[in-house]
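Internal tracking record. Fields below are filled automatically when a chain is submitted to the structure queue. Please do not edit lines marked as system-generated. If the sequence contains nonstandard residues, flag them in the REMARKS field before resubmitting.
Queue: standard
Priority: normal
Entity type: single polypeptide chain
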Amino acid sequence: MTKEDPKRDSTAQIEDIAWIDTVHPEEATGYVKSLYEGFQKQRGWIPNILKSTSIRPDVTRGWVPLFNTLMYGPSGLTRSQKEMIAVVVSAGNQCHY
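SYSTEM-GENERATED OUTPUT FOLLOWS
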């Protein structure tokens, strides 16, 4: 990690370090705009993991139900355990999403 590379600087703002193209909220249309608005209203922010598929609304359309099933559907794991696994995997991959 170096200060010269904001993509590797853990103190950088998350929204400033996207390594992939995303649709910004003010540019969103259709399905992506609807999702963004829903998350903004419900949570006050838009998850970066959702933004990561935003340039391909067809992928987002398939990914959102899969994510919801994995994270909120019936399982032998609690919601907290699922979140902990996601955090550990993301940290291991040096991924802030």
